[in-house]
Protein 1
Amino acid sequence: MSVAADSGLGRREATKLANRAAIISAARRVFAEMGYGSATVRDVVRRTDLASGTFYNYFPDKESLFRVVLEESAVEVRARVRAARRQAQSLEEFVAAGYREYFGFLASDPEAFELMRRNSGTIRAMFDEPIFGAGVEELAADLRAAIAVGIVPELDAEYMAAAMVGAALEVGVTMVRREPPDVEGATRFATTVLLGGMERLGRERRAS
Amino acid sequence: MSVAADSGLGRREATKLANRAAIISAARRVFAEMGYGSATVRDVVRRTDLASGTFYNYFPDKESLFRVVLEESAVEVRARVRAARRQAQSLEEFVAAGYREYFGFLASDPEAFELMRRNSGTIRAMFDEPIFGAGVEELAADLRAAIAVGIVPELDAEYMAAAMVGAALEVGVTMVRREPPDVEGATRFATTVLLGGMERLGRERRAS
DNA sequence: TCGTAAGGTGACGCCAGCGTCACGTCGAGC
DNA sequence: GCTCGACGTGACGCTGGCGTCACCTTACGA
C-alpha cells in the first residue's frame, strides 16, 4: 500500500474526485459569467488544467454538466428553505424562516446566486419548471396547507407563492448589491411586506 | 413613376422595410425559443426567406439585432407603465395602474413576454441594469417622490421597488399560464398584496 | 427605353467547438 | 520491482457559424 493521500483514498481515486470537482467548479464560474447558451465545453476545460478529452471521461456533454452544477446548489437551498419553514410555529415564522434561509444562502454563496440568476431563463426552459419553479410549487403547497389549518387567510395560493418568490428574487438581487449584505434587514423587509399583503387580502375577502 | 406600393414608398424602400421587419420578427421568435446565447445569426436568417449575406446589410451582428429587438418591446412597456402611474391620484391607483398596464402587456403580447423572460439573465448582464432593471430604478424614484409627498409611508424605496417588480414578474408568469389570462384579477391581487405590505411597513415603523 | 447603382445572393475562406481515439503515463496490486 | 490496465492527453476529422465579396437582378430616374 502506497496510499499517500490524507484521505483514505488511493491516488487514482483522489485525482478522479479532484478532476470532477475542478470541472464542476470551473463550470459554475463559466456558466455564471457567460451564461449557459454561449458557454462551450472548451471554455470550461480551459479554466482547468485538464485536457479536453478528459472532460468526456466525466460528463457526456454540456447539458449533463449543467444539470449537475445546478443540482449541487439549488437542491440544497430548496431543501433548507423548506426545512426551515416546516419548523415554523406561526405565520410570521413561516414567512421569515423561508426568507432568512434564502437570503442567507445568497449572501454566503454569491457565485451560486449569480449562476442561477444569470441562467434563470435557461433553467426554466430546460427543466421546465424546476429549481425556482419547483420552489414555487412547494411554497404553494405549504401555503395551501397553512390555509387549511387557518393560519393563512383564504387566498390564491399560486399567486401568493409567485409573489413571495418573485419578491425574494428581486429583493435578493438588491440585497447582494449592498455592501455588506444585510440578511436580517432584507428578511424583515420581505416578511413584513408579505405578511401585510396576506392581512389585506384576508380583509378584502371578508369585506366582499 | 412606377411606384406600385400601397404605401407612398418605392419598391426598394418598401422591401427594405419588409426585410428589416422580417429579420426582427424572426429574431424575436428565435431568441424567445432558444435564448440569446445559443441562437446564431444563421438561425434567424433561416426563419426568413433572405440569404445570409443580406442580414449584414441590416445589422452588423447578433448583439445589435438583440438590442433592437428588445428596444422595440421593452421601452414601450416601460413608458406605458410609467405614464399610467403618473396619472394616479391615490396610492392605490398608483400601484394598480402600473400592474394593470404591465399585466395587460403580457396578456396581449405573450411572445414579447417569453422573449424577455427567457433572456432576463442575459439582458441584465448585457445592458447591466436596463429593461427591467431600469424599470426598478424608475419605480424606486416614483416611490421616493410619493414618500416625500406623504402618500407612501417611509420605507426602503429600493427594496420596495424590487419587491413590486419581482412580484409582478412571477405573478405575470402565473397569470399567463392560466387560460384565459385574467389581467384584472392579477392586478387586484398584486395591488392588494403590495398595498398591504406598505401599510404594515408603515405600522411597524411607527411602532419602533 | 436605357444606364446606373442599390442591394439581394450564396459560395467561400476562416475559425472554433465537437467528440474520438491511439498513445503514453503512472498508480495499484502482487 | 514488475505487470497491467485505468485514465489523462491532445491531435484529428468533422461540422457549422462567421463575415465577405464578386456577381447578378431590378428598381429608379432621366
Protein 2
Amino acid sequence: MDDPTLEDVAARAGVSRALVSLVMRGSSKVGRERRESVLEAARELGYRPNLMARGLAAGQIGIVGVLLADMHEPVNAAIHDGLAEEAARHDVRLLLTTGRGRPAMERQAVDDLLDLRLDGAVLVGPRMRASEIDRVVHRPLVVLGRSLRSARIDCVTGDDAAAAARAVAHLAALGHRRIACLDLGSRPSPLRRAYEAAVGNPVLTGPDALWRAPGPSTAVLVLGDTTGTAALTALLRAGCDVPGDVSLIVHGDPPGAAAAQVTTVAPPPHELGRLAMGTLLERVRDRAPAKPRRLTVPPLLTERATTGPVRR
Amino acid sequence: MDDPTLEDVAARAGVSRALVSLVMRGSSKVGRERRESVLEAARELGYRPNLMARGLAAGQIGIVGVLLADMHEPVNAAIHDGLAEEAARHDVRLLLTTGRGRPAMERQAVDDLLDLRLDGAVLVGPRMRASEIDRVVHRPLVVLGRSLRSARIDCVTGDDAAAAARAVAHLAALGHRRIACLDLGSRPSPLRRAYEAAVGNPVLTGPDALWRAPGPSTAVLVLGDTTGTAALTALLRAGCDVPGDVSLIVHGDPPGAAAAQVTTVAPPPHELGRLAMGTLLERVRDRAPAKPRRLTVPPLLTERATTGPVRR
DNA sequence: TTGAAAGCGCTAACAT
DNA sequence: ATGTTAGCGCTTTCAA
C-alpha cells in the first residue's frame, strides 16, 4: 500500500531519483561511494522496486508467462522444470496461469498473461482453438505439446510416431509379436493414431479395455500418464506375472512410474521445456519476426521392471 | 509492443479517454449509445487494457499471487483448484510462481509476487524460514499447509492429529491391533509425529521400511503422496493379498490412488484451497488488520479396496 | 557522473 | 452524462 518508493530512497540518500534508478538496476556508471549510500538507504527503508511501474516505463519487464493447460497432468511439472531452468539461465522470471482443463478458462488465462504485457508466453498443451491462439500477434509466443499450422507461432512437440515405433521395436526385440494397445484417455488423439499405425491394429479404449485385449497378447502398451501405472496394479491384482505372462510399457512418465518400476516411453519433458523456453527467449531478444519453427524432441525409452522376453 | 491504447480507442470513437476508461470497466453511468460505439471501436482495434498501467493507477489490480512450493507434489494441483474456484467466485485472477522445492528459489518467487504489487498472496506449503515469511508486511498473506506463529499472517492447515486418529480408528474397527506405520519421506515432520503418537510405536523410515515391519502386523499406514501407492504395488508383487493378508491406508490422496483403489486419509485439498483464498480475499477487501487466524480443516477418509477386516 | 523533465497507459477526483 | 487534470512509480533522453 504505502511501500517506500524510489523517491523516498533518493530523499534519504540525498540524491536524485534517476541516480537511485541506475543503482537499482546495477548500472556501472555510478560512483562507488554514492552507490553504497543508496543501497544503504534502500535497505533501511525496505525498498523494493515496483515491477508494474518499471514495466510500464521500460516496455520490458523480464518476465514471461506460462500457461499450463492442466496442472493435474503430472508431466507438466517436469516440463515446467525445463522451462524454469532455461529461463533462469537468462535471468528471466516465470509467471504461471492455468486453464484447469477447460478451454474457456484457458482463453481467459492467456488473456491475463497478454494483458499484463509480459515479454512473451509459452502455452503448454493448450486445448483452445487454434484460431484463438493465432490471434495473438503482438507478443512472442511458443506452443508446447501441440502442433499448430501457424504463420508466426513456434511449436515444440514430442515425436509421437518415433515413440510408438520405439516401444514396438523394444517389444519386438524381446520376441513379442501380439501386442495390445490401450488408450485410457477419452478422445482420439494424434498420439493414439501414431500407436495405431505402429501396432497395426486398433487401439482399445474404455475403462475395461485391459480385459478386452485379445487372448494371445504377450505385451500391452498403455497410453496416458495418470492411469498408466494403474494398469500394472490391475494386472498384478488379476494374478498376472509381469513381465512373465505379459510385458507392459506405458507411454508417458509419471512420478509413480519410477517407484513402481514401470517401463515407459515418452518425450523427455525437461528437454521439451528447455527447448521451448530457449526458442521463446531468442524471439524476445532479437525481435526479428523470423519464420516460425516446428521443433521436435525424440522419445526416451526407460527400461524398468515390467518388460521382459516373451515366454516360450 | 505497439498495442492500441485507451487513447487510440477514444480517438476512433470520437470521445475522451476517461469515457473509454469507464466503459472498459463496465460503469453504469455511460449512455447506451456511446457505450456501444466505444466497444465497437475497441473491438475493431483489438484493444486490450494494459494491466500494468491499470494497476499502477488504481492501486489494485484484481490479481492475487500463489506460491507453489513444489509443483511435483500432486496434492498441490488439487489445492490450486480450490484456490482458483474461490478466486473465480470473487472475480479475482490468479498468478502462480513456484519454488521448485528449493528455499532459495522460493524466496525469489515470493519476492517476484510482492514486487509486482499484486493484491495479496497465498503461500502453499512454503519451506522457507518463518522469519522471512514474516518479513512481508505490506500485503495480505495467507500460508497454507504450514502452521506459523506470526503476529499478522493467517494459516490454513490440515489436522494431522485428527487424520492419524481417524486412520487408526478405522483400522481398529476392522479388528486390526498390530499396525505398522511407514514414512517414505526423508525428514521428520509434524505429520510423522502425529502418526507416531496415534499408532503408539515408532514410524519406520527408509526405502526398505516396508519389509522391516514387525511380523505380526496386519495393517500398514504409509505417509506420503507420491510413493504411497507404490507401496501397494510392492506388496502385491511380494505376493501379499491386500487386504486379505494386510490392510493398507495411505495418508495423502494422489490422483493414482483412486485408479488403484487405495484407501486414503487426508485433509481435502480442495477445501484447504477454498478456505485459504476466502480468507485472503476477505483481508484484501476490508483491509482491517484483524488478528491472525489459524484455521484447520478436518481430514477425510476415503475407503477403497485396500482395507478389510483382519483375518482370523 | 548527475539532475531535470517528459512520458509509459491508465484511473480518479473534480469540474462542467 | 462527459471532459479536464493530476498523478501512480518508474525509465530515459537530454543537458549540465
